Every structure is written in C-alpha cells, then in structure tokens.
Known about the structure:
Blueprint: E1 5-14, E2 17-27, E3 32-36, H1 43-51, E4 58-63, E5 66-67, E6 78-81, H2 93-102, H3 110-123, H4 139-151, E7 157-161, H5 169-186, E8 189-194, H6 197-203, E9 206-211, E10 214-219, H7 221-226, H8 231-236, E11 243-249, E12 255-257, E13 263-264, E14 285-290, E15 295-297, E16 307-319, E17 322-329, E18 332-339, E19 351-356, E20 362-365
Parallel strand pairs: 3-8, 3-9, 6-7, 7-8
Antiparallel strand pairs: 1-2, 1-4, 4-5, 9-10, 11-12, 11-14, 12-13, 14-20, 15-19, 16-17, 16-19, 17-18
Helix pairs in contact: 2-3, 2-4
Protein name: Sugar ABC transporter ATP-binding protein
Organism: Streptomyces chryseus
Domain ABC transporter: 5-237
Amino acid sequence: MPSAISLRGVHKAYGRNTALDGLDLDVGQGEFFCLLGPSGAGKTTTLKTVAGLEQPESGTVSLDGTDMTGVEPYDRGVAMCFESYALYPHRSAYDNLASPLRSPRYKLPAAEARERVGAVADLLGIGALLERPVGRLSNGQRQRVALGRVLVRPARAFLLDEPLSHLDAKLRQAMRAELKAIGAVRRTTTLYVTHDSVEALALGDRIGVIREGRIVQTGTREEIWHQPYDTFVARSFGRPRINLLPGTITRDGGFVSADRFFEIPRITPAPGPAHSVRPPAPGTRVQIGVRPRDLSLGSSVLGPGGIELVGSVYITEVLGRATEVTVRLGAQHLSLVVPRADAAGLRPDAPVRLSVRPESLLLFEADDTEGPGRPGRRVTG
Ligand SMILES: Nc1ncnc2c1ncn2[C@@H]1O[C@H](COP(=O)(O)OP(=O)(O)OP(=O)(O)O)[C@@H](O)[C@H]1O
C-alpha cells in the first residue's frame, strides 16, 4: 500500500532562507504521525507543502501514491488547521464548524451535518458554546473551534499545526487523550506538528524529528527514546533533559570524565541499530547520556554490574510528587528525578551517592562542528 503522505527530496526556500532542505517523509495509512522540532525547523512549511499552499522548488509530494504536482490545495482532499486560525468572528461557533460541510465538495444533508458538528463539538468540550459568536470566545475556545472545523470534514488526511498550543495544561492533556481517541476511531491519517516532546510522545504512532529543514530521525516513541540518532534527538525528549557528560574512552574500554573527576570502568553500549557499531577506540572523545529518571540515590538499586557515582548535592527542586536533584560531579552538573521522600534529607553540599544500571547509559561521540554527536559515527583510533 502506498504511503498516505510521502515527501521526497523537498526543497523550499524563502529568499535566502532555506526552510526545507531535501526533506523526506513517509506517513502510513491511518497513522498518527507527529513532526517535532524547534522553532524555525520547517514544520509549518512541511504542512503547507503537503496542503499545496507552498510549492517546493524541487522534490515531490504524493498523497496515496499520486504525485500532487500541479494539484490545487482544494483538490488534495486534506484538511489543515493552522496555529493562527482563520475563523469568522461574527458568526457563531456552530456556523464556523458547519461551514466547511456546506461547500460544494461535501454538501452534506443538513441533518448529517448537524450530527457531525454536534459530535465534534462534544468531543472538544465546546457543545455549550455553539450559539456564541467566535469573537466572544477565549483563545483556547477559539482554538478548539478551529480544530473542530478540520475534524468535521471527511478528509484523506488531517494536517494539524500546534492545535493545542493555546490551551492550559489541564485541558491540553484532556484534549490529547480525546485526539488520540478520535484518531483511533477514524483511522484518518494525521500529520501533527508540535514543538512539545511530551505531546509527541503521547500522541504519535510514530515521531519524526526535524531540524534545519531535514528529518533527523523517524521512529516509534521507544526507538526515539532508547536509540536516539544523535545528541540533538536525545536532548529533544524528556524533561528534565538527558544528562550528557563529556569524556574519553580509556585504554580498558571504560570512560573517564573530561575533568578526570570520575571513571566508569566499562562501557557497553546498548544493542540496537544505532549502537551496533564497534565500540569507540581508546582516546575517542565521547559523551555519556543518562536520563534523570534512570539515576537513583544511594547504591541500594544496584544489581550486578551497577555503576556508582559520588558527588555533592547542588540544589533540589520539588516537581509535584518527585524531586529534581542536581548533583555536582566535579565540573559537571547531573540532574536526577527521584521520589520526593527519597530527597527529603538532602542538603546543599552534602556528599551523595548515585547509581545507574549500565544498560541505561547511552554513548555518543562528542558534539563538534559537523553536528551533534552520534553513536559511533566516526570512531577513530
Ligand atoms: N513566508 C515566509 N517568508 C520568509 N521566510 C519564511 C516564511 N515562512 C517561513 N520562513 C522561514 O522558513 C523557516 C522555516 O519556517 P517554518 O515556519 O516552517 O518553521 P516551524 O518549524 O514551523 O517554526 P515554528 O515552530 O516557529 O512555527 C524559518 O527560518 C522561517 O523564518
């Protein structure tokens, strides 16, 4: 079966600004695909190119296997929701939701249109606001109307650009769950743009990480989390961020930190495609990656082969039921997230023992001018 959405070698520049730099992307039929990247990475341009609102200078966009070159946006059969939503402010929320269904393309019978609008409005929690002019709704409510305008349409694909960005945290979380449920029920292919990694992990059947107009890595949440392509991808997921500790491979295949403050006797990179390269040679400059939730206080959790580090408490910060503890390890700061009770007795400057299972360590090369470090890209002797 051809991909629902396929981009090949897409180039798009605005004057001297390259927005898409040979972008390749495949979204499967019925898939909920999240495109994640920092501001300016090319996310919106990707959506607009799929929708036909921007023409690439080179490369192709295909929908269901058909090349869309020269096909007008209206004829592409995709429904797009922008972050800056275009609604009719003087018309009611109901009218705004129903108007796409009155277009000659759908011309749904009135009763069916009413039913569709009602169902989408209930799903988005705006059922009670339908009579109100959109100009008199809050930003968050307007955003839900804009999203509703997309979801009411029968479409071959939904293109959603940060559709939850104006909602408060609680509503965002609730809407995420709803969106996931709609996706599952409708099985309509969805390309969803976000710069929020939590959202991408929660929603995406697969995730594509975009940087400077190119896809850096595509994968399931497990692949992206456990086998990040490089330190840029590793840093993009998880709050607090992954710890990256610079150092060198020792003669015995261990790791010594750049300031020689601590050593890890043996580094065994986790198996998997990204790590199947041979271990770096002694002297190679590398970075050890360890996620804050994979570190524990004390040595009690250590099974055989566990790794222990000794540092001093720098600062603690309560995050709800957990506490983030920042530990000074020589010149490095290392962050860990532990149950609040475990961190209760910690005082600044007190010595502290940390432990981590060896399989939780990720090994990257040093970041350099060629880009973020990858697992064993240029292993040198
Ligand atoms: N109409 C335009 N004119 C000139 N430059 C543009 C235009 N639209 C986008 N760009 C540039 O193209 C690049 C990609 O922009 P794009 O909006 O696709 O990024 P994005 O990942 O969606 O960012 P954000 O998360 O901030 O919305 C940026 O450098 C941006 O400044």
